[in-house]
């Protein structure tokens, strides 16, 4: 595989990547066992309209390429997720008084991070902040669990989360910490713009 490209798999992630057109999909791999499958055929039509190279391969080969992941018979090569600089994200958010961001601290489980990204997009968060160390990052497994939500949310990468939160506070953001005994995200009345900080699976914030 080309190290300069990301690999994504699964019907929803590949479909959303093609629909959003935010990143260039360069190649599509389709298992011959999925011939005639409606959702897969819809993806193939989208890919053809964007002149994406399409390779039909056997399921065993697709298993090998995805390291036996739950690929649903489809995989794509795509440009990597473009990580935003914090300063650029703050500039884009300027004037949006209702902006909600999520900061994820030291999360190492790709399943958890993918689910959090998916939920954040559904709840209206515009931006996710990830430290560039001791965090799983945007892997194919994260992308699969996120079900394509990564295409609809900004991802900011920072070297120091504490420093980033200080910068955001100085820019007028309110900082909130998630806690198991706290209020529900869906019912809480935020002062905004706001950043919600959630911690790792084992240690919290």
What keywords describe this structure?
205 residues, 60s Ribosomal Protein L30, Chain: A, Alpha/beta knot, 2 domains, five-stranded parallel β-sheet, four-stranded mixed β-sheet, 7 helices, 33% helix, elongated
Structure description:
- The protein is an alpha/beta fold and 205 residues long.
- It folds into 2 domains: 6-78, 2-Layer Sandwich (60s Ribosomal Protein L30, Chain: A); 86-198, 3-Layer(aba) Sandwich (Alpha/beta knot), CATH 3.40.1280.10.
- 33% of the residues lie in helices and 22% in strands.
- The chain contains 7 helices and 9 strands; from the N terminus they run βαβαβαβαβαβαβαββ.
- It has helices spanning 11-20, 38-49, 59-65, 86-93, 110-122, 140-146, 161-170; strands at residues 6-9, 25-31, 53-57, 74-78, 100-104, 127-131, 154-158, 174-177, 194-198.
- The strands form 2 sheets. It has a 5-stranded parallel β-sheet, with helices on both faces. A 4-stranded mixed β-sheet has the order 1-4-2-3.
- β2, α2 (38-49) and β3 form a beta-alpha-beta unit.
- α1 (11-20) packs parallel to α2 and α5 (110-122) runs parallel beside α6.
- The chain is elongated and about 55 Å long.
- The two termini are 36 Å apart.
